[in-house]
Design goal:
The protein is α/β, with parallel strands linked by helices. The chain is 27% helix and 26% strand. It has a single domain, classed as Carbon-nitrogen hydrolase (Nitrilase/N-carbamoyl-D-aminoacid amidohydrolase, 4-Layer Sandwich), CATH 3.60.110.10. Strands 5-4-3-2-1-14 form a 6-stranded mixed beta sheet. A 6-stranded mixed beta sheet has the order 6-7-8-9-12-13, with helices on one face.
Length: 257
């Protein structure tokens, strides 16, 4: 299974509509991949709080339409990162979007753990309530977003729901980059699952982004890692490696709690 992570430079000087079209073109270039992953809130920037309400959209909005067409044109599964969603209840949510190769919006995940310590996203966005998995032909994905990475119990729940790999779009800041790589590897090791963690590049709302998107295998080995700029990573995953790792070192069977 071939996966590509597109680490997008979220430049505040680039209009949202222009970035949306540009990212659609980048997705279409990944025609040979089976799965393509984008970062968190790449339309606006994860720290550009003042844009959340202005750019929030329904699940038939311009980003969904562009990404649906891009997935269909490329014939790929597309985890299109997340967007500020305007829910039917009027609240905002940080919502991830997964499209099937025919362009259908197959799965959505509203971020459960909101960052901000009682400000920013934590007060502007509503919290998701449900764990979400996405069953691809060869691999079941568990969906998480950015700050979720710090909460291992979420990932245990995804393993119990059948996940073999975790897809984690993020807008992670550079000043905590060491935590990003450490936690990505930890979630892979403790759950014996692939981790595909895709972040943003550049600086928005005065916050320098970590970049360094990363793919980790079920034994905790880093398969590929990006630098700090806009970049596309492509890697071949062996779905059987999850099973063989869990059989060779059956730590998950010894769980008590």
């Amino acid at each position: 299974m071939r996966a590509s992570l597109i680490q997008i430079d979220v430049n505040p000087e680039e209009p949202v509509n222009s970035r949306r079209r540009r990212v659609g073109s980048l997705v279409r270039e990944q025609r040979g991949s089976d799965l393509v992953v984008l970062p968190e809130l790449w339309t606006v920037g994860a720290f550009a709080y003042e844009l959340f309400a202005d750019e929030a959209e329904k699940l038939d909005g311009p980003t969904v339409q562009e990404m649906s067409q891009a997935a269909r044109d490329a014939g790929i599964w597309l985890h299109a990162g997340s967007v500020p969603e305007r829910g039917d209840d009027g609240a905002l949510y940080n919502t991830s979007l997964v499209f099937s190769p025919d362009g259908t919006l197959a799965h959505t995940y509203r971020k459960i753990h909101r960052f901000g310590f009682d400000k920013g996203e934590a007060v502007l966005m509503g919290a998701g309530e449900h764990l979400v998995t996405a069953a691809l032909p060869d691999l079941t994905l568990g969906l998480a977003t950015c700050y979720d990475l710090r909460f291992p119990e979420l990932f245990r729940g995804l393993v119990d729901a059948g996940a073999h790999a975790f897809v984690i779009p993020a807008g992670w800041p550079e000043r905590r980059r060491a935590h990003w790589t450490l936690l990505a590897r930890a979630r892979a090791v403790e759950n014996q699952a692939y981790v595909l963690a895709c972040g943003t590049a550049g600086t928005h709302a005065g916050v320098e982004q970590a970049g360094h998107s990363i793919v980790v295998d079920p034994w905790g080995e880093v398969l590929v890692e990006a630098g700090s700029g806009e970049e596309t990573l492509t890697v071949d995953l062996d779905p059987a490696k999850v099973t063989t790792t869990r059989e060779a070192f059956p730590a998950l069977k010894d769980r008590v709690l």
